[in-house]
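Name: Thermosome subunit
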Amino acid sequence: MQQPLYILTDDTQRTQGRSAQESNIRAGKAVANAVRTTLGPRGMDKMLVDASGTVVVTNDGATILGEMDIEHPAAQMIVEVAESQEDSVGDGTTTAAVLAGELLVRAEDLLDDDLHPTVVVEGYDEAAGIALATIDRLVLAETLDDDQLGRVAESSMTGKGTGDVSAATLAERVVAAVRHVTADGDIDRDSIHIATHTGASSSATRLIEGVVVDTDPVVDAMPRSVPDATVAVVDVALDVRKSAVDTEYSITSVDQLDAALDAEETELRGYASALADAGVDVCFCTKQIDDRVASHLARAGILAFGNVNGSDATAIARAVGTRRLGTVADIDPDALGHADAVDIERFGGDDLVVVEGGAAAAAVTLLLRGGTEHVVDELERAVTDAVDGVVAAVESGGVVPGAGATEIAVASRVRDAASRIAGRKQLAVEAFADAIEALPRTLAENTGLDPIDAMIDLRTHHEREGRAGVIAGGRSGTVDDPVEYGILDPAAVKRAAVGSAAEAATMILRIDDVIAAR
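Structure predicted for Thermosome subunit:
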């Protein structure tokens, strides 16, 4: 007999065929189920505790999946769906993960009915194309006013903790921040900064036309508030110049020592004089500021900060309309910026520098407050989603009805198209429609409605009125037109969720052999 040939090591674990598919599908379903209950305005939070005891309380899908210690490779692919959604449009991570899991659930039923995985994949691909085309047709408006963008921001924050400040109030500040950094239809997302600080209620959150920097003046005696300030941002050390090579100087008399000290003092005083002569009121330096230079600057009435972080320096320069300088000699007045005010404000037990550039500022900051770290962290996630949602709505194709209405319309269109598809692939297309409907079903369930009755009402209302969504209100909810309630979602979020979920599900379904080292 021919001897068996072993190509894998003894410690390799291999799962093949139906067992591999079942394992992957179960893992994907488990991940999706972990975030399912967080979906919608009545979604619940998760408490995540790591090995060191650090606690995170959130209902943000990307955060939950990112914090979970997931080892199964198929489950990690669902996590990547949420991460991809977060990176591309900044919102809809729970939707993408739940949809990917539901596609796997429906595929499992088809595989049990002896459909080949390739047939399922082909059906899903065709259905995804129909779904994306339907989303494009459902776009309500591509050019949006502030009220519509505010609705988008509110929808993005729905279900997330915002403390004692309403989502509507936060939405107004988010829209104002986005509008501030919009020029000729282009949005500079990197110029919208989000800063957090505990010690006050969430209602103390504010929008600053400028930036907030965590740094201290080089001398306490410097002014704490400078209105109508001329600002310099410099990248050179205000210190005694050092030779690039090791050198020694031989001093043989007191006169030589005095001359050396006088030269050093003149150099240091020159830095302060150059800034003062240029009319600088506030100086942000990314390098070291010598104590003697700091004293000269204080006597000149200049507020100065040393060792400023490079990213903070760039943000400050954008906020005051200047550039970072490589020297303080012969400063061009055009190279200086202007701030309506530079204030050192006390927040709890900490000082923060608030640089307000005014209407001309190219950067803005949403300064979020909260009573505890948990509150302010969740508020930051909510506002970040709102900002990303508004940016996506402006830049990537407008808005569609929210509250599950888009999913109901997509499922109806996909199911209608399935009736015209020949062969077994029709079953996969119908399964895709069923998976899409799982999203409004989950919304209804989380809102307190009976999911079966809600789905019947949603389909009936959609056929009769053209739009139907799950509207949360009171102790439960109702089925109605979400546009009348101002519930809008960015079309880009829906497109990204359908595309990434379908890609992940089809990739997992194609796997029939898992080879893993122990």
